[in-house]
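User: Structure tokens for this complex, please. No commentary.
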Amino acid sequence: MSPRRVTLAEVAEHAGVSRTTASLVLAGRGRELRISESVERRVVEAAKELEYRPNIVSRSLRTGTTRTIGFVSDTVATSRLAGDMIKGALEAARERGMMLFIGETEGEADLERGLLQAMSDRQVDGIIFASMFTRAVKVPAALTAGPAVLLNAVPKRASALSSVVPDEVEAGRAAAGVLLDAGHRDGIHLIGAGPRVRDVPPEALAGVERLTGIRDALGQAGVRIAGGRVCPDWQPEYGYEATRELLERARPRALICLNDRLAVGAYQALDDFGLKIPADVSVVSFDDHPVATWIRPKLTTVALPHYELGRKAVEVLLAEIDRDREKTGQEGETHRVPMPVRIRDSVAAPDA
Amino acid sequence: MSPRRVTLAEVAEHAGVSRTTASLVLAGRGRELRISESVERRVVEAAKELEYRPNIVSRSLRTGTTRTIGFVSDTVATSRLAGDMIKGALEAARERGMMLFIGETEGEADLERGLLQAMSDRQVDGIIFASMFTRAVKVPAALTAGPAVLLNAVPKRASALSSVVPDEVEAGRAAAGVLLDAGHRDGIHLIGAGPRVRDVPPEALAGVERLTGIRDALGQAGVRIAGGRVCPDWQPEYGYEATRELLERARPRALICLNDRLAVGAYQALDDFGLKIPADVSVVSFDDHPVATWIRPKLTTVALPHYELGRKAVEVLLAEIDRDREKTGQEGETHRVPMPVRIRDSVAAPDA
DNA sequence: GGTTGTTGCTAAACCGGGTTAGCAGGCGGC
DNA sequence: GCCGCCTGCTAACCCGGTTTAGCAACAACC
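Assistant:
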């Protein structure tokens, strides 16, 4: 940015002191180094008058810290939900005077390498390595060099990196709990996974964990899962198909859709069969995608706390940076962020 | 990042030359400054062997350029579409070896000021000032200092800043064109604006321009707009209400919804009245929000080219940076990015 | 042989801060 | 009167690059 900035030297001259003195005063080390009050005042006033702002670039050169963190993700665009994750990270960073570099790898190894390098070249203080859907990732070697945190991802093999993920198991329990609380005991079907533990789509962790939580809560209540279908992808059309198939041979009382997009498809299939939600069939889901409030009736769903995930990642990373030196090489922690239930209009008591 | 980086001095020593020579060679100025081929080779090899990467921070200190641009927006999270804008900017930046700082103002003036300052402190080469929906913005004073571009926004009063916006007028023409091409001549209603030019929601430019384009194309074909309703907000519920009201007193043949969320509401209202899309009523819309492919039938819509907008903004900004000195203080240009039509299943010929 | 040019490289300054070592000057104690 | 100590400040170096000015060594020319 063009208009020449005021430098420390100018402030010092204006106050009639040396650059050293000005630097010390502005760094708050005046007392400690016995600078007289009158000089201190002169410096502070000169700085204010000239609207002095230290050049972070030059400071970084000396101190090695840039007050900048890198946010690397596989992609932000495909999952619209992810914006909130960045937003949370952004705000948490701003509150602490840090800025965020953003980068996308598109899942390509060489882009990833280039990006991490570009960030390292710019001396970032740490890196948040984010995935747009929860999964196990291979930790790039470049990450182990400096402070870093995995976001919405866990390391494939043991690693010193900490990770921040949504608490999907608890979310599964919560979703099942919503149905149990409403009085459902029979005819509970799953769309997108189950009924057995192994019936989940590969790669995504959410499937496994949500299913685990669901089975756990229902099992504890002595309730049997009536059925379930794996879907090749968690998109509306597969939810639609799975639900149609189900309706052709059974009459469910409640559906647990493994995410909101599947629920959109389920809604359409239920409509085709003339079944009313929630009077005939209750529906619960996961994610709290915006579409959940657009469909009728509004969908009760367990929200992915993207905003909170982003915040938490920054907090964990900064803690990591602070105690950088004591790097005891032990394994990183896994921080689980709770997923809140959004009660809306798609669940009712089963009619007797 | 911790593991000490190789410095230029080390490369120079390893090659047995001065830092100056090493710097010149690696900057590609060896030929120009008559460095012998053998020395050049030694330096390049030393650099490769030591895996030397220049420290951009220190380079920036000297050259005043950081190969970094700031992306400031009012908010990325509320409009999920906006992720693509950032993505486009990100990729265009990466292709040119630049990184992106991201910041959000939340529309608050002091956050905005702080953010622009933080970026200036970090010596960004230029700033992209983005709005998440197209509108006229008051250009912050801090922006006029250095190279900057408005994205998805135009300046409220004449400004030297260039802007990049979607070509909404042309989009309006295109939407109307889709209906005309299908043979529609009567019973074309607008949801969300119109029928008169002044009937648009305030603030958002998209309304005005889309309406202008629609009126233009229909007028040119000698077709009259049968009716229209302004909606206080372009959300599904208002689209639903507006369409219900319309259906209670008329039988439209085609709806032009001013955006996809309104169209979602329109779909629901049409369904309530037992009207089939597109057999009974055709629907066209704007934005190409992901939901457009989730509803049945899939929605024909004119897409907001978010990705392209982001790319274009970076291109325009970099051009601006390059010819920075010649700043002739004239007014900035407005770059209009075309909005492509996504033909899907919601438009058919009117039955006779 | 002295002047001028060219070739091939380097010393040193510079960017704007942070930091270490140390210097004047006044004071008290022996 | 000399020594040591405290007070209050600053000279000088550092970070890691870029850039300017200039210096040897040798060749060419008159």
